[in-house]
């Protein structure tokens, strides 16, 4: 087996490459890390190919002898890069894959942005059969296009493709800083878009935690997943026979309920909840299909997610940095 990993320097890619070394049967696989702006360390088992994913020659060279592709590379809200990387790059990669004599399975890491995250209303838990309804922005649009493109290659050329659709992927102390009202807030939504200046100043001064409310006024429910659980799903999908030509929601089994989170933070960390009305919809990304067909289940629930985030100690030289392009 020979694996090609795109996005190996990203949040998920770094964990995938580390997990491969200790995996019970994938540890012996040869690995090619396809890198562009940044690179990974080359080892006896991990070789590096540098180039743009939109460059056909570079992609074909990276795919030589490859049996399985883990396509993790993405750009966020970068309109100048979105088409070349996410659309043309996906097309070039799929064209080279379908023409390769050694190609066996193509695995795409998708996102719940393709079904609208909390921007779109659903009357029931979101399953893999629900229509794609992206939220505003080029990132969500390109993730929809990637999923559709892979599905059409499955129909057109009968390739073995698999989509794993994940919500916001958490690691280390991400959740703790997502809940911060300070300048160190990680991710979104930005509190100054939902709160007036006086309320935000109060939240910052009184050691509070956000209790977001959905469009109906009820505590918001949204989806998260820990990076360890994403990695376990990706590596399970590499050879699982039931992953062939399927799409799976990969998320925590229960959506995160902000009222439950607020109580945890109050009881264990002394943070007072502050209610924040929002225009968002509560939703639930149903992972039943992955649990039933793959036997996959997340190990990290809300309690574990909170515990990990609040006990993680960041090293002095471990700077929080969000990498978008590349």
Strand content: 15-25%
The helix fraction, in percent, is 25-40%
Straight-line distance between termini = 26 Å
Task: Tell me the number of strands.
Answer: 13
* CATH class value of the largest domain: Alpha Beta
What's the CATH architecture name of the largest domain? 3-Layer(aba) Sandwich
Give the CA-based shape.
Answer: globular
What is the number of helices?
10
Q: What's the oligomerization state? A: single chain
**Uncertain spans:** none
Q: SSE order in H/E notation? A: EHEEHEHEHEEHHEEEHEEHEHH
* Structural domain tally: 2
Instruction: Output the CATH homologous superfamily of the largest domain.
Output: NAD(P)-binding Rossmann-like Domain
| CATH structural fold name of the largest domain | Rossmann fold
Mean pLDDT: 93
Main pleated sheet: 7 strands, parallel
* Strand order within the widest beta sheet: 3-2-1-4-5-6-11
Gyration radius, in Å: 20 Å
Which class of secondary structure composition applies to the elements? Answer: alpha/beta
Short description:
The protein is α/β, with parallel strands linked by helices. It is built from ten helices and 13 strands. 34% of the residues lie in helices and 18% in strands.
Describe this structure as you would to a colleague.
Helices cover 34% and strands 18% of the residues. It has 326 residues and is an alpha/beta fold. The protein folds into two domains: 2-170 and 224-252 and 283-299, Rossmann fold; 174-221 and 255-277, no CATH class. The strands form four sheets. The chain has a seven-stranded parallel β-sheet with strand order 3-2-1-4-5-6-11, sandwiched between helices. The two termini are 26 Å apart. The model has no long low-confidence stretch (mean pLDDT 93).
